[in-house]
């Protein structure tokens, strides 16, 4: 019986003929631009990419894409609102290079229309190249966006989209991917398309979200139609069991092809600065840089005036008018030598600008910003030192508001500079409640605002007011209840000043002596004519009023009388004669009375000893301060040791 099927020899013969026929046919890669010799690898698993020699419009549409409407591409392109989107016609430089508009590879499968996009190693735009793109365009400014696509805004702006395209997709392959409930997880092999001939094609568009444990399509997330959102361009796909099939289906879709083309074209245009509105973007970038330079100069003026404690504004807020203040005056001075500020003033005078950034509100805002930066720097230094001490004092201002000044004292240890002590003023706080409880709450609120921990406070120093140093209700007691390591040390200078002041008030001779000096100053300072008479006779030291708060400052008032007593007596005599001519009985009586008191023996002895006593007050102050501090530290250490022993 004759066989109805071919024999094995016939089958082998047909196979050999088929192989010879296929060998004579041109290879598929002949139609594409292949990588250079430096990028080739003889390994079978080498990842190769090719670029098609035709635009996307000339490609055959994949099976299953026939159902897409002809307006699909235009709908997707309408959603791409980035101002740097490329022109519809082809770039001449691209056409000269062989019309390479997108990286593209065919799949070695049964259907010739099974294809996916991919980057070509030689022609792809790397992340480093994208980040080094010229910054002349305003869209080329890199925004602070995360690499994780799940952290991107739901609706991207033009600048955000361009910044992401510049940076490119980030495929981290070093992480360990978590498993889901089924024990499956994403693997690095999913970043590649496995061909039937063993070749691997890189899926550069696939990115992994560590936050949501899912994968997304980079180009569809950026340029996809949000109304037709899928898992790969919206929330992500994490059904790992069918991931390979889902990726192959997605990369064949018409929408993905269109988005891939938009991504590649935008990357190329941003790299070469050939966007459709590049001229406008260059002008915008120049304007942005100009305003940055102006603000840099204005901040420098603010710093200068603040460092020298100068007022900012005057009676006028217009340029080139008298009394327009130090701020505008500095701007006018800088404009004489600086071309940037000169151009800015020219535009203001020509009324070409509606916003000048020179108004009083902008000045206040700049002052606030500089103050915030300064405070942040101080807080950073305090946090670096970790431990600190606090110094506080209350005083009323001219508007009759009680202000609490806060100073932080730290020890800065640096290897290059050694150990140094710094005191930083951190602000005035309005004290609505001047009791110990109110001041303590105000201070704790300031620490919370600065982000400092009271547990790191190791010392506190205030004046001798009962609301500050009170042992039961004072600020120091309330702070010690929270942190028992914040030892309280009273202000030695304030204590010494109070002791000396109270001692002076206990003596009738001392009261009469300093009262006479104050009367002498009041007599001459109450009139311009009287002060001129004093200056005619007293050439060196002038009379000074007594300080009511600082005892040591009274030495200057005593010196003027001690070393120039004869000249002062002559001035009083001349003032008496002048008042007699003017028939001013009050001045004649006061001058004669003071002149007699200055020439009496008790006053001469007192004023001779007072400067010596006062001059030595510095030495007394230093010795007493050291002695008092040692005693207080010893008592504090003893108290802490006893308390620790009791707790144990």
Automatic annotation (TrEMBL):
Residues 182-275 form the TTF-type domain. The lineage of its organism: Eukaryota, Metazoa, Chordata, Craniata, Vertebrata. It comes from Cyprinus carpio carpio. This is TTF-type domain-containing protein. InterPro entries: DUF4371 (IPR025398), RNaseH-like_sf (IPR012337), Znf_TTF (IPR006580).
């Amino acid at each position: 019986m004759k066989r109805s099927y071919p024999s094995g020899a016939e089958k082998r013969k047909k196979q050999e003929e088929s192989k010879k026929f296929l060998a004579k046919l041109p290879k598929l890669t002949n139609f594409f631009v292949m990588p250079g010799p430096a990028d080739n690898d003889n390994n079978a698993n080498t990842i190769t990419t090719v670029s098609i020699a035709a635009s996307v419009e000339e490609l055959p549409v994949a099976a299953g894409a026939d159902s897409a409407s002809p307006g699909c591409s235009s709908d997707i392109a309408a959603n791409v609102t980035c101002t740097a989107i490329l022109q519809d016609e082809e770039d001449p430089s691209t056409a000269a290079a062989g019309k390479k508009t997108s990286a593209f590879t065919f799949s070695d499968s049964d259907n010739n229309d099974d294809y996916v996009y991919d980057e070509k190693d030689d022609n792809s735009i790397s992340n480093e190249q994208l980040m080094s793109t010229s910054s002349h365009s305003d869209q080329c400014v890199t925004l602070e966006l995360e690499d994780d696509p799940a952290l991107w805004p739901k609706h991207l702006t033009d600048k955000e989209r361009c910044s992401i395209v510049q940076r490119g997709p980030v495929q981290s392959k070093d992480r360990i991917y978590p498993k889901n409930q089924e024990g499956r997880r994403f693997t690095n092999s999913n970043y590649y398309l496995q061909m039937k001939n063993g070749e691997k094609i890189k899926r550069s568009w696939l990115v992994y979200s560590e936050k949501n444990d899912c994968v997304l399509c980079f180009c569809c997330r950026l340029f996809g139609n949000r109304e037709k959102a899928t898992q790969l361009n919206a929330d992500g796909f994490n059904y790992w069991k069918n991931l390979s099939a889902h990726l192959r289906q997605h990369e064949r879709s018409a929408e993905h092809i269109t988005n891939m083309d938009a991504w590649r074209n935008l990357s190329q245009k941003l790299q070469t600065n050939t966007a459709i509105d590049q001229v406008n973007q260059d002008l915008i970038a120049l304007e942005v840089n100009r305003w940055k330079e102006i603000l840099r100069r204005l901040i420098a003026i603010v710093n200068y005036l603040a460092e020298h404690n100068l007022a900012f504004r005057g009676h006028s807020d217009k340029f080139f008018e008298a009394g327009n203040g130090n701020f505008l005056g500095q701007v006018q001075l800088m404009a004489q030598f600086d071309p940037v500020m000169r151009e800015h003033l020219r535009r203001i005078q020509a009324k070409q600008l509606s916003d000048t950034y020179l108004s009083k509100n902008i000045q206040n805002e700049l002052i606030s910003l500089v103050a915030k930066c300064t405070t942040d720097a101080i807080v950073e230094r305090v946090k670096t030192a970790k431990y600190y001490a606090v110094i506080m004092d209350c005083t009323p201002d001219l508007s009759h508001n009680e202000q609490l000044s806060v100073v932080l004292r730290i020890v800065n240890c640096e290897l290059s500079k050694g150990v140094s002590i710094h005191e930083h003023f951190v602000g005035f706080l309005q004290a609505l409640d001047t009791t110990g409880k109110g001041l303590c709450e105000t201070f704790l609120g300031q620490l919370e605002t600065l982000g400092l921990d009271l547990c790191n406070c190791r010392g506190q120093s205030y004046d001798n007011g009962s609301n500050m140093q009170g042992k039961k209700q004072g600020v120091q007691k309330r702070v010690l209840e929270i942190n028992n390591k914040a030892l309280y040390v009273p202000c030695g200078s304030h204590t010494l000043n109070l002791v000396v002041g109270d001692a002076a008030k206990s003596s009738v001779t001392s009261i009469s002596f300093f009262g006479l000096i104050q009367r002498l100053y009041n007599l001459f300072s109450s009139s311009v004519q009287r002060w001129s008479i004093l200056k005619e006779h007293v050439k060196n030291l002038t009379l000074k009023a007594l300080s009511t708060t600082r005892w040591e400052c009274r030495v200057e008032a005593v010196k003027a009388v001690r070393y120039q007593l004869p000249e002062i007596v002559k001035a009083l005599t001349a003032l008496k004669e002048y008042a007699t001519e003017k028939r001013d009985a009050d001045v004649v009586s006061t001058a004669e009375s003071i002149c007699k008191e200055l020439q009496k023996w008790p006053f001469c002895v007192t004023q001779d000893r007072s400067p010596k006593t006062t001059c030595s007050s510095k030495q007394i102050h230093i010795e007493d301060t050291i002695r008092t501090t040692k005693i207080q530290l010893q008592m504090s250490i003893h108290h802490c040791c006893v308390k620790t022993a009791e707790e144990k």
